[in-house]
Design a protein that fits this description.
The complex is a heterodimer. Chain A is of the alpha+beta class. Helices cover 52% and strands 7% of the residues of chain A. Chain A is flat. By secondary structure, chain B is mostly helical. Classes of the chains: A alpha+beta, B mainly alpha. Chains A and B meet through helix 1, helix 5 and helix 6 of A and helix 1, helix 2, helix 4 and helix 5 of B.
C-alpha cells in the first residue's frame, strides 16, 4: 500500500473521530470539588443510610459534570448542579436522621404517657409542643399536592366600578382592586386617583409579601396590555419584587375589567 | 470496509441520535418546574431558614426568564440551576425544621421523665 493510499484511508477515519469527539469538553474544576465532597459524604454511613436516593442523584450529577458535553459554559453549569446536588444529599440525610430521632422520641413519650396520662398532659401543655406537626414535603421532581377543585361555573359579576376595595364581605369572587378605563389618561398613564388606589393596596400586598400578584387585563388590545404594564411599573417602583409580579390576560368574568386591569393575588379570587 | 463508510457511519449515528432521542423539556417547562420548586420552598419557610439560597434561586429564575427568547440554551441552564438551588433551600428548611422538632421532642421527653420519677427524686 502506497503512502498516498494510506492517507486516503486515514482522512475519513480522522474526520469521523473528530465528529464523534466534537461534543466533548473539559470538565469544570467545580466537578472535581463536587467529586471530593461526594466521596467524603459517601464515607459517612449515616448519610448513606438516611439519604440513599439523594446520594444516587448526586452521583449521577457528578458523573455528568465529570464528562460534560458542549462548551465550557455547559461544563460550569453541570459542575454547579453537581455541587448543589451533593449539598442536597447532605441536608436530606440530616433531615431524615432528625426525623428518625424524633419518631423514637415520640415513641418514648407515648410509653411514658401510657403510664400516667395526666403527667404527660401537664408536660405537653407546659412546653407548648404539638408533636404530630412534623410533616415532610417531597423533594425534587415529585409531583405537587393536588390543587383544590375549581368550580365549573364562575358566578357572573356586574360591570366593575372604577375601584373595588378589598373589604372581605363580598360573596362573589372579586379582585383586590379593579381599575377601569377611566383610571388611565392618554398613553396608559395612571391618573392620580388610580395611583392613590394602588397606594392604598400596597399594605394589603405587603401583609402577604410572599404571594405572587397578578395584574389581569381582559381585552386583547395593545392599550389594555400597556395599561397593565403601567400598573406593573408603578408597583415595581413601589418596591414589589419583580419575580412576584405578573401580567396576564384573563377571560374570567370575575377578573375582567374591560379595557382596564384587575389586580389580585395568584389564584386569589375571593381567597384572602 | 470502504473508507467512505467510515465517514458515513458516524454521521448517520449522530443524525439518528438527533432524531430518535426523546425531546428535552422546553425552557418554559423548566421555568415552570423552577417556579413550583421555589413556591414549595417558600411554603416550607425557606426564606427564613435558607435566605441566601432563596435569593439565588430567584435571581437565576429572573435571569432565565429574561433570556428565554434571546439565548434559550443559557436560559435552560439557568432555569435548571434555579430549580436545583430551590430544592437545596427546601431541603435546608426541612432539615432545620426537623432539628427544631427533634429538640422540642427531646425536651418534652426529658421533662416527662423527670415528672415521672418518684416524688422527691430529681435528676
Amino acid at each position: 500500500m502506497s503512502v498516498r493510499t494510506s492517507l486516503r484511508h486515514a482522512v475519513p477515519i480522522v474526520i469521523g473521530a473528530l465528529l464523534l469527539g466534537a461534543c466533548a469538553a473539559p470538565a469544570d474544576p467545580s466537578a472535581q470539588f463536587a467529586r471530593q465532597s461526594l466521596d467524603s459524604l459517601k464515607t459517612n454511613p449515616e448519610v448513606a443510610a438516611n439519604a440513599p436516593d439523594e446520594l444516587a442523584v448526586a452521583e449521577q450529577a457528578v458523573a455528568a459534570a465529570e464528562d460534560p458535553r458542549g462548551n465550557a459554559t455547559n461544563a460550569a453549569h453541570l459542575g454547579f448542579v453537581a455541587q448543589k446536588r451533593v449539598q442536597i444529599a447532605a441536608f436530606a440525610a440530616a433531615a431524615n436522621r432528625d426525623r428518625r430521632a424524633y419518631d423514637a422520641l415520640i415513641e418514648r413519650r407515648d410509653t411514658i404517657r401510657h403510664g400516667n396520662e395526666s403527667i404527660t398532659t401537664l408536660a405537653t401543655d407546659a412546653l407548648g409542643v404539638t408533636p404530630q406537626h412534623l410533616q415532610f414535603q417531597p423533594i425534587g421532581n415529585t409531583p405537587l399536592p393536588p390543587q383544590p377543585p375549581v368550580p365549573e361555573q364562575v358566578p357572573q359579576k356586574a360591570p366593575p366600578p372604577m375601584e373595588t376595595p378589598a373589604n372581605g364581605t363580598a360573596t362573589v369572587p372579586s379582585p383586590l382592586l379593579t381599575l377601569d378605563s377611566r383610571a388611565f389618561a392618554a398613553g396608559a398613564a395612571l391618573k392620580p386617583a388610580a395611583r392613590q388606589s394602588l397606594d392604598r393596596l400596597l399594605p394589603v400586598l405587603a401583609r402577604q409579601a410572599q404571594r405572587p400578584v397578578v395584574i389581569y387585563f381582559g381585552a386583547k388590545t395593545s392599550e389594555a396590555l400597556e395599561r397593565a404594564g403601567a400598573v406593573k411599573s408603578y408597583l415595581l417602583a413601589k418596591g414589589l419584587p419583580k419575580w412576584l409580579l405578573f401580567v396576564a390576560y384573563t377571560s374570567d368574568p370575575a377578573m375582567n375589567a374591560g379595557s382596564g386591569v384587575a389586580i389580585d393575588f395568584e389564584h386569589g379570587a375571593g381567597a384572602r | 470496509m470502504k473508507p467512505r463508510l467510515l465517514l458515513i457511519v458516524p454521521v448517520a449515528l449522530l443524525a439518528g441520535c438527533a432524531i430518535l432521542l426523546p425531546q428535552e423539556p422546553s425552557v418554559a417547562d423548566r421555568l415552570r418546574a423552577a417556579y413550583a420548586t421555589i413556591k414549595q420552598a417558600m411554603a416550607a419557610n425557606a426564606d427564613e431558614f435558607a435566605a441566601a439560597d432563596m435569593r439565588d434561586a430567584r435571581q437565576r429564575y429572573d435571569q432565565a426568564y429574561a433570556l428565554m427568547n434571546d439565548d434559550p440554551d443559557r436560559a435552560r441552564q439557568l432555569a435548571d440551576e434555579s430549580q436545583v438551588v430551590g430544592t437545596l433551600a427546601l431541603t435546608r428548611a426541612q432539615a432545620a425544621l426537623a432539628a427544631q422538632q427533634r429538640s422540642a421532642a427531646k425536651n418534652e421527653v426529658e421533662t416527662l421523665e423527670q415528672l415521672a420519677l418518684p416524688r422527691g427524686v430529681r435528676r
